[in-house]
Amino acid sequence: MVGGPRAPGADELAMRLHTAQARLAASDLPQEIRSRLQRHLIAVCDAVKAPGTDPGGCGRRLDGFLAALDAAIAGK
Questions:
Q1: Can you give the pLDDT at residue 7?
Q2: Measured between alpha carbons, how far is 49 from 45 in angstroms, rounded to an integer?
Q3: How far is it, in rounded angstroms, from Cα 49 to Cα 70?
């Protein structure tokens, strides 16, 4: 298998990351806020790819990103 075995829950996490990126792309936010959130999402994605990563911890990071995205959308 290329890249080694996948951690349990990796497919669900990948789907959630894809959905989060699509939500950010579809949002009508000012450029400064969008850029900040994009960097936040990149940090989450980098954490997911780190060796020995914990999918549960990455899920919590993603939850934090989604909360920040929801707050930005609600506050715009």
A1: 61
A2: 7
A3: 24
Residue 5 tokens, joined: 């075995």
Residue 44: how many CB atoms within 10 A of its CB?
A: 23
Within 1-76, where are the H helices? 10-26, 31-49, 55-75
Tokens 């715009």, residue located: 76
List the chain pLDDT tens, one digit each, 76 residues: 445 555 666 789 999 999 999 999 999 999 999 999 999 999 999 998 889 888 889 999 999 999 999 999 999 6
CA distance 12 to 35: 25
4: alpha, beta or left? (left if phi > 0; alpha if psi -120 to 50): left
